[in-house]
Amino acid sequence: MRATFKSPALWVGLLFVLLLFDMRQFSPIFGWGFPGVQPEIFDRASFGELFWSHLRLVAAASGAATIVGIGLAIFVTRPAGRDFRTLVNVVATIGQTFPPAAVLALAVPALGFGPRPTAVALFLYGLLPIVENSIAGIESVPAAVRDAADGMGLSRRQVLRDVELPLAAPVILAGVRVSVTIGIGTATIGSAVGALTFGTPIFDGLAGNKLPYVIQGAVLVALFAILTDLLFARLARALTPPG
């Protein structure tokens, strides 16, 4: 019980929930610090609505990137796909280095305004760490372990499912952790093309010269990213074998 109360994830989570659903209690502070801004708290949408929209967007893009990234890593670590490893790495690297704003600019004419072009940008931006870590994790499985599995009569699919992926899971999870955390921060830019995220109060604040809105959106997205990273860290410790 004492260890639970010492958990950073607990306190960050409590602060995040408090601000998410009861930001108005800080109205006097924002009113005192920024007397010319009315209303003091962003009110075009509730922060809870912003959170669920932001969460769904990141979850969809990160889920797709995880499935595709792990699938590509499995493919290029099999004998039939080794010749495509360089190509996969190049494509994933281009997706990471291509600015999300540029992806949005190219995707909007085809997909329209809203969450879809943002999801495409997050997918491309989050693919590289998952692909790289998945390849590294699978290739880090000792050859002796694979040989032992082969000696037990396991098929290639069974070796992958029961031996390689479980042993590679902590390294793969590290890549997913980086991808999701980056995605949470990057998703805010989607509000520039009509997606409802924590970036909405930030862009509204910049457009209307209302700094409190910028602060509110930035603090919430930062706490969201920190909390997610802490929860991934707990999951990673649970998946790491003792010793």
Describe the structure.
With 243 residues, the chain is mostly helical. The protein has a single domain (62-239), classed as MetI-like fold. It is built from 11 helices and no strands.
Low-confidence stretches: none
Kindly report the name of the CATH homologous superfamily.
Answer: MetI-like
Tell me the CATH topology: MetI-like fold
Gyration radius, rounded:
21 Å
Q: What's the β-strand tally?
A: 0
Helix fraction bin:
over 70%
Separation, N- and C-terminal Cα atoms: 25 Å
Number of structurally distinct domains: 1
Quote the beta fraction.
under 5%
Characterize this entry briefly.
The protein has helices spanning 2-5, 8-22, 27-33, 47-76, 85-97, 100-111, 115-139, 143-151, 156-186, 199-208, 211-239. By secondary structure, the protein is mostly helical.
Features:
single chain, 243 residues, mainly alpha, MetI-like fold, 11 helices, elongated
Tell me the layout of helices and strands.
Layout: H1 2-5, H2 8-22, H3 27-33, H4 47-76, H5 85-97, H6 100-111, H7 115-139, H8 143-151, H9 156-186, H10 199-208, H11 211-239
Helix pairs in contact: 2-11, 4-7, 4-9, 5-7, 6-7, 7-9, 8-9, 9-11, 10-11
